[in-house]
């Protein structure tokens, strides 16, 4: 027997780490502790950026919507914004508000899904089931207003495809009133429950310095106290007119990130109500001019953080290049830092805390 | 801890939250984006639906005997995005809320909707022309060309004969004035 501790490589994944998405982690472990981590990715690369160059600008709205189901409104919104920036299209105010509405509805559903999965990873199945059932309110709203539970197909170049009438607005309000009470209950449980706190407080720490160094975005950055939010930092659509706070937590751990998501979902409910109050009348689409040759970018705050689109066109109706950088791309880099010296049992919990989106990152 | 037990007890009292599908009908909202359908009497054959369709599920093709054009919607290629409905200038395409699209492998090539939209014959030269519905004609000729009382008459002509006819009537109207 020597005093030297044995290290070995533990393969985690590529399937069923936290979400049912494939990433292969190679964890160097020493006893129960993870000493270092490397990732192997690329299992769900579908060549979507190349595919975008083969389709015309209209078809790409739907293609980008299929990149990922949880941010399936943010992708087409960012893409449409890039086209509008390029061709100087002024989106009518009503369409701007309706875009924010779809974004916030999707954000609530996405955040609730993530915190629900967190309970599932901990093994708190009853809470997981309850959160998913509460989330059904949002799914019903999406299905009733937009016609699908995940792909809302709200955006088109120059505006929105889906308008809202008084009856649907009442339906949304009734759903949100119900959701508000249930969400407040859930927030209390996540904040105070002993089991949740025992598994998540102090786990997966990342300092604000590391957040800046790695360029992390979204709830991961905000969970470490950095108020980074594209909706505030570089406003788009109707966000400048919607008064909202950027929610941060100082815990820097898995628990703080979950609390940021829950509180943001609560804030998004208030924002949806504000949108319904202020919704201006008027057209929902702008007339389409010819799309000139050139390049443009757009930035959107997706549920996971900053989503960035780059578009280059010639005068044809097919883009020469469409490139997107998704929030999970930066947030993956946080995992080796967060998992330094964590317990093997916490790997999936920490992976889930960055709300990874493999299908977005690998497209 | 007490909080979650209170919730669980309440959920237990409320009973199942799921629908007993397929033993009972599942609730489907009227706006649900389901199977795409098309009204041939409203179609002008502009093909914008086929242009915007991301899955190339819509196909327009002149028929072999040149009496009309066929219009097909392949439900298996359809992404149910609703772009065709959004861009259709006459409202000919719509999405039903029927989501029962699963079928046997043997029905793979019949899970489609086919229409033959017939051409009209130009009253002037006899050329085959595509029908222009009155609402769309009223939008195109909103400025009311002088000397034209009845747009319906004009719509029976092919575009070339129509231009000639309008010019003729404009000249007569100008001479009369």
Structure, explained:
- With 363 residues, chain A is α+β, with helices and mostly antiparallel strands.
- Chain A has helices at residues 48-52, 57-65, 74-87, 93-122, 125-145, 166-192, 194-200, 208-214, 218-222, 230-233, 254-278, 327-332, 334-338, 347-353, 358-362; strands at residues 7-12, 24-30, 33-40, 155-156, 159-160, 294-302, 305-313, 319-325.
- Chain A has one domain (7-362): Cytochrome-c3 Hydrogenase, chain B (Orthogonal Bundle), CATH 1.10.645.
- The radius of gyration of chain A is 21 Å and the shape is globular.
- The model of chain A has no long low-confidence stretch (mean pLDDT 89).
- In chain B, 29% of the residues lie in helices and 16% in strands.
- In chain B, the strands form three sheets. Chain B has a three-stranded antiparallel sheet, with no helix packed on it.
- Chain B has helices spanning 2-14, 48-52, 83-87, 134-140, 151-154, 159-176; strands at 36-38, 58-62, 68-74, 93-95, 112-118, 120-121, 128-129.
- The mean pLDDT of chain B is 86.
- Chain B is α+β, with helices and mostly antiparallel strands and 177 residues long.
- Chain B contains six helices and seven strands.
- Chain B folds into two domains: 29-118, Alpha-Beta Plaits (2-Layer Sandwich); 120-177, no CATH class.
- The A-B interface holds A 55-56, 58-63, 65-66, 126-127, 130, 133, 136, 143-148, 151, 153, 156, 161, 185, 188-189, 192-195 and B 1, 3-4, 7-8, 11, 17, 29, 31-33, 51-54, 79-83, 86-87, 95, 97.
